Amino acid sequence: MAGLLYLVATPIGNLEDITYRAVRVLREADLIACEDTRQTRKLLDHYGIAKPTISYHEHNEAERAAELASRMAAGETVALVSDAGMPLVSDPGYRLVRAAIETGVPVQAVPGPSAAMTALAGSGLPTDSFRFGGFLPPKAGQRLKALEALAEEQATLIFYEAPHRILEALEAVEQALGERPVVVARELTKIHEEYLRGTAAEVRAQLASRDAVRGEMTLLIGKATAPARDDTPVEEAVERLIAKGTARMDAIKQVARRRGMSKREVYEKTLSPQRRRDAE
Asked: Residue 171 contacts by C-beta under 8 Å, 6 or more apart in sequence?
């Protein structure tokens, strides 16, 4: 008889944020697969759970998924946990779930904490529609491109971000999306939990003024709104952005996006009459 795979949500900070069901499942499982066995051991010890653990992370996911699927096919019950929150949400686990399904092993998700949902609820931003984007690309060009692709999204945007990249991410948000409301939720459910609110520039300034930027970060960005009518000549709108320190091509991109024009159209309108004739 096939075993069972449980996907168990664990606390994102405060160890009290775990369900009775999750504790029971962890106690009853034959084996607990962990992103980091040392991190999970703190939780297990806190609740007096003495069960064997095995590492399951991005570097051994392929081989370990096959091994665990084989053990479950033989009748074992495996509980998969990540370091914090729901497994598979910006964490390893997809390959194990697919392997279990293909082997005929039932899969049950045990709901619980999620940094994305916790941050959204406490952010003060609209919750009627949202889009979770995981981690933004670490490279500046790819990060900017990813944000620009979401410029018209009518939903609150949610991302996870590393503390050493949060300042760069906020700079990219300002450049790609303008002065939208932004929230950075830091150290959720922990002693130093806080929500930083404002525009991307304002939140960035708050963080940049600190001696160090630490903690788990969730970045939320307000949804796109219909742009107000702007009768400022295109070339003047571009020059205003340049005067504020925006690079010329970035200013052209911003004006094009806000007015529903192509970058080429805006670029051509910024040319002098002589250069415009030369371009033709």
From this structure: 200, 204
CATH superfamily of 4-113: Tetrapyrrole methylase, N-terminal domain (3.40.1010.10)
231 three-class SS: coil
Dihedral angle sign, alpha carbons of residues 138, 139, 143, 145: negative
The CATH architecture that domain 116-221 belongs to is: 2-Layer Sandwich (3.30)
Strand pairing report for 77-81 and 4-8: parallel
* Structural tokens at position 135: 């981690």
Q: How distant is the alpha carbon of residue 8 from its chain centre?
A: 20
Q: Assign 274 to helix, strand or coil.
A: helix
pLDDT digits 0-9 by tens, 57-93: 999 999 999 999 999 999 999 999 999 999 999 999 9
Helix, strand, coil distribution of the chain in percent, nearest 5: 40, 20, 40
71 Cβ contact list (under 8 Å, min separation 6): 3, 31, 78
Q: How many Å apart are CA 200 and CA 182, to the nearest integer? A: 6
**What gap in Å lies between CA 171 and CA 143, rounded to an integer?**
10
What is residue 123's three-state secondary structure? Answer: helix
